[in-house]
């Protein structure tokens, strides 16, 4: 079996070093010197493998995205329908499991805060947020269609579900003892069920064996 | 009218200086020198007015808490019942208004991220989170009782509502253009309405003029 190229190992050491540096002192204070020191490498090697700090951050965010995607795909692979695929997403983001990684969650929270002040970080963060919203929209849309419901307020609900996930990440990282253990996934799933239940059926769509007529939703409040 | 004491003005300058310093480089990198420089004061004056950096942070978090409390109280003062008081809370945290302060929201997001790595910050942050959860619990409990519903899963729902608020703060601070404008308050209010609607009524409680019997909830999913 061929050895993993040395370049890959070095690059991974440097990305891990950036993560440790952000965790210890934030992105702004993460000089190449500090990243090198946290990686156990000489600064020259960092410069050899990455053009600049921003490129290391892009790689780190890509890795966090790949980790999040693999959690989802492992669960979605055994989902039988759109409802289960949406639940697979919720569990991938919010339920614990053998593949849970609190460090990745904490890193994401810290990168989100760095994005407030650092335009470079914000651009990279927003790219990830855009992808996540697109994924949630696809999953919600498929579930609404599967239920014979009209597709409505999808952008707002996708943003709301993402906000909930981001907020759970914040509280899980800095106030874990103050919230009930494992409350988040079931709550998000129940929220989605109620949102879909409250949506209007598509006129003439067969639900549970009989035709439904267009009727006023009762679940909303305004 | 007596002038505001000079001490108060100086302390406020220093607290504002800490906020600017956190915004620019994080709490870890906020030396007394940096805070003094951001306040336009000599470092000796910072040391004169505050024992240490932690004490400045405590004051800043107290001020953010007082700002959040005043937003809520202004709206709760005109609320006629528990339902409107809960809506007043949601609007105070999530709706825009003439008293909206994006800087305070961004500061809170950054302090939340600092709390992940800094035990001092975490302790102060958690104190504020504990108070916020207690407030949400009281408001939710009063609304459930007003509706004749049993008080159930209050801790989980309070944590969920707080997570949603925190997540909206994150997205409002670093990805505002990617989420629909002003989506959050109505969504949280609808979520609360559905949660309360799905709860079991207290046996024998009169709702809308007739006695209800204990029945299985249909809205939840587990």
Automatic annotation (TrEMBL), chains A, B:
The keyword Coiled coil does not apply. Keywords: DNA-binding, Repressor, Transcription, Transcription regulation. The keyword Phosphoprotein does not apply. Gene3D superfamilies: Tetracycline Repressor, domain 2. Pfam families: TetR_C_6, TetR_N. SUPFAM superfamilies: Homeodomain-like, Tetracyclin repressor-like, C-terminal domain. InterPro entries: BetI_C, DNA-bd_HTH_TetR-type_CS, Homeodomain-like_sf, HTH-type_TetR-like_transc_reg, HTH_TetR, Tet_transcr_reg_TetR-rel_C_sf. Residues 31-50 bind DNA. Transmembrane segments: none annotated. This is Transcriptional regulator, TetR family. Residues 8-68 form the HTH tetR-type domain. The lineage of its organism: Bacteria, Pseudomonadati, Pseudomonadota, Gammaproteobacteria, Lysobacterales. One of its GO terms (molecular function) is transcription cis-regulatory region binding.
